[in-house]
Amino acid sequence: MARPTDTARESKAAAAPGSAAFILKKSFISAFVALVLFSLMIGVRTEAGPAGQLIYWTRFGDLAALVAAVFFGSIAIELIRGWLGPSRRVSLVPEALSSRLSGLQRFLAPALLVFALLVPVIFYEQRYMLDLGILVLTYVMLGWGLNIVVGLAGLLDLGYVAFYAVGAYAYALLAQNGLPFLEFSTTSPFVSIQFLDLGNWAFWVLLPISGILAAFWGMLLGFPVLRLKGDYLAIVTLAFGEIIRLVLLNWQNVTGGPNGITGVPRPSLFGIPLTNTDDGLATRLGIEFSATHRVVLLFYLILALALLTNWVTIRLRRLPIGRAWEALREDEVACRSLGINTTTTKLTAFATGAMFGGFAGAFFATRQGFISPESFTFQESALVLAIVVLGGMGSQLGVALAALAMIGGFELFRGLEQFRMLVFGGAMVLLMIWRPRGLIGHRAPSVYLEKPTEISSAMVKEGHG
Amino acid sequence: MDYFAQQLINGLVLGSIYGLIAIGYTMVYGIVGMINFAHGDIFMIGGFIALIAFLLLVSLGLTFVPVILLLVLLVSMAVTALYGWTVERIAYRPLRQSFRLAPMLSAIGMSFVLSNYAQVAQGARVKPVPPVITGGYTLFENDGFVVRLSNIQIIVVVTTVILLAIFSWLVARTRLGRDMRACEQDQTMAALLGVDVDRTISMTFVIGAALAAVAGMMYLLYYGVIDFFMGFIAGIKAFTAAVLGGIGSLPGAMLGGLLIGLIETFWSAYFSSEYKDVAAFSILIVVLIFLPTGLLGRPEVEKV
User: How many CB atoms are closer than 10 A to CB A394?
Assistant: First the structure.
């Protein structure tokens, strides 16, 4: 914002930057712009009247307050800027931060893990905290899943929620209708489709199936977008996510349309239901039944799923395919010229990311017991993407902390529900301006040269290279 | 045939609105090389400003409709243009030198801010507008089926044509247009030759927003309803139009807009109206796969 040339030009006619006159002038301009911007939108409130006609009333008080806020806010910003001195370019990874973080990381990650494991013990009585924990972990898992696509392979995916939706609907539909299989018989009709009711094992059988289906959809999306990059890729994935949502919304007789699917089967502890019945877990263990048992099970379930995602990502990063992803992120042309098959590299990234999205979707469906297209809007994709970006695109710990900060932040704004997206959007803009590479830090490539190798023409002899 | 003719008229009107929005996308992409994700919401803001200005003018006692409409048009264009300028100043200019994805993410954030701002400021409920421009002409009548061309449809198309003429003149003949074309080719070189790049980019956003405001007002008059969420879908469709026509190309944006409007209208008329958005998005995907440069675009040469 305050690049030297800017300030120099603007201040040519007026006083020097930093002087009182300069600050006042800038603030007056900002306040005037704000006045024009807000005059109609804030100053006048329209509403549909009882008879369908439009009525309006004025809110000049709010308008004046906002304009004053902009005026004094810009004075404050100018003063702070003058106090901080001329802005300098921040290096991509601040040396001090990255080294401090790597030291911290060694202790922070295990500490967080232990804390996560103990959450159900500490907050056993507080249902709200458990639910919040489950929500945070769901987004941690989604963040880690998307991180494979965006953070590792560098493919900007704005339609990640589509795979989440595929997983959720796959689980809900299959659990309600049973698993279809082909039955062969010797009489006509020789082949018929039967549905196998999975009973208490539904979640455990359908979880991998949901993941596989989502991965399949990931490949399906991957094929057409192989040739696209950057912004085009982003917009196509967005369109894909919207198509999935619109189909879910309009394919009434399968998906239930806007009403969604209710009564999605709850998870069991490996076949033992958590109900207040004779074969329920509580009766078998001889303890008193409590609804909290299921919440605790859900908590550990999503924790395990999230850790699985993390583990697979870390392992994959050490394998050739993971290295190919990172190479692809850094430079696609160089990647291709080094003989890496970009087609399979991109497809596996999409499929792997989508698979974890599908797992998370199946978990979401079994946790909520109810799903509808409303849960799978573009805002959800943007939220997960914001978590990945905030976490530093590629850093596993960063993504986890970012999910905690984001979802926790949303909870703080619970009373101000209507301003939520305003704050979220504003935070995204500010983050991009202030720290485009993420708050937590940026993941360096997994493989790199220990020390720079000297290369010069003097070292190259003819025929020796 | 009559049904077809009627749908053709409806499609052209809708296409004009998409085309006006698409120009904003294509101009910004041509010069800055980013998708201005918030442009659809600028269109929505333009519609709201027009609605409020209209309400105020009517309550001030003005009754002569053409004067009201002209004033509403001017106010809406001016204020929305300031919105476009502010968005560029706050969310995009500081990111000029940043990494590739930063402006895109910032634009998504800005899009949320704008739509939520309209929701908070004006309420979430759909706002109806009484039909201002009524009447029309019966083109021909056949077996009881009437093909009508209403006055509002004429106004939308005529306004679009006039604005396009002014805009083409602006780009082709004025100093500003020359600066814009220079920045599109090479920003560094343009700056070296004395073009104020920052100002030119700002003006691009201002013009784009003004055109989107016109589209917003036309949408308001044509459909008679407005809500805070309409910018998202309209924005993506207009972007589809820009890509279909070849991003960076101005006649392409208009052509793409008309095509998208026609496709959407015919799809609703002959297949199902529920899947009309799916049709538009599928076209986007298909075009990008088979015709990445669009109908009138130039192929992009990748240099390493």
Answer: 28
Task: Judge whether A239 is closer than 8 Å to chain B, CB to CB.
Answer: yes
Contact B109 A156 (CB under 8 A): no
Q: Which among B45, B117, B278 has the least Cβ separation from residue A246?
A: B278
Average pLDDT, chain B: 87
Q: Is the dihedral of CA A239, A241, A244, A249 positive or negative?
A: negative
- Report d(CA B7, CA B263) in Å as an integer: 10
For A221, name the nearest residue in chain B, comparing CA atoms only: B285
| Sign of the alpha-carbon torsion through B285, B289, B293, B296 | negative
Scanning every residue of chain A, which has its alpha carbon at the shortest distance from the alpha carbon of B79?
A37
Nearest to B278 among A53, A243, A419 (CB): A243
CA distances from B32 to A194, B100, B169, B180 (A): 57, 11, 21, 10
> Residue ranges of the domains in chain A?
4-84, 102-434
**What is the identity of the amino acid at A424?**
F
Q: Which residue of B has its CA nearest to A424?
A: B109
As a whole number of angstroms, the distance between CA A71 and CA A24 comes to 9
Percent of chain B with pLDDT over 70: 98
| Segment B101-104 long-range contacts (CB within 8 Å, at least 24 positions apart) | B101/A156, B101/A230, B101/A389, B102/A432, B102/A436, B103/A432, B103/B32, B103/B34, B104/A156, B104/A231, B104/A234, B104/B34, B104/B35, B104/B37
Cα B189-B191-B196 angle, rounded to 5 deg: 150
Which sign does the torsion angle of CA B224, B230, B231, B236 carry? Answer: negative
Residues of B in contact with A426 (CB under 8 A): 109, 113
> Residue A262 is encoded by which pair of tokens?
């209710």
Tens of pLDDT along chain A (465 residues) come to 444 444 444 444 445 666 788 888 888 888 888 888 888 888 888 887 777 777 888 888 888 888 999 889 988 888 887 777 655 544 444 444 455 555 666 677 788 888 887 777 777 777 888 888 889 999 999 999 999 998 888 888 888 999 999 999 999 888 887 777 777 777 777 777 777 777 777 788 888 999 999 999 999 888 877 777 677 788 888 888 889 998 888 888 888 888 888 877 777 777 677 776 777 776 677 677 777 777 888 888 899 999 999 999 989 988 988 888 888 888 888 888 888 888 888 899 999 999 999 999 999 998 888 888 888 988 889 889 888 888 877 778 888 888 888 888 888 777 777 788 888 888 888 888 887 766 655 555 555 555 555 556 565 555 544
Look up the pTM and report it: 0.85
- Treating both helix axes as pointing N-terminal to C-terminal, what angle do A95-122 and A292-318 enclose, rounded to 10 degrees? 150
A183 - beta bridge partners?
A192
Contact A429 B90 (CB under 8 A): yes
- Please tell me the distance in Å from B159's CA to the nearest CA on chain A: 24
- Assess A51–B contact: CB distance below 8 Å, yes or no: no
Q: Indicate which of A387, A429, A434, A437 best probes the interface with B, i.e. most B CBs within 10 Å of its own CB.
A: A429
pLDDT tens for B60-81 read: 887 788 888 899 999 999 999 9
Tokens 């399949």, located at residue: A216
Helix locations, A178-257, DSSP H: 202-222, 230-250, 252-255
What distance in Å separates residue A200's CA from the closest CA in chain B?
Answer: 37
Beta-carbon-side half-sphere exposure of residue B44 (alpha carbons within 13 Å): 28
Nearest CA in chain A to B123: A47
Rounded CA gap, B273 and B259, in Å? 17
As a whole number of angstroms, the distance between CA A263 and CA B250 comes to: 52
Chain A / chain B CB contacts < 8 angstroms: 182
Task: Give me B231's structure tokens.
Answer: 């910018």
Cα dihedral A373→A47→B277→B255 (10° resolution): -150
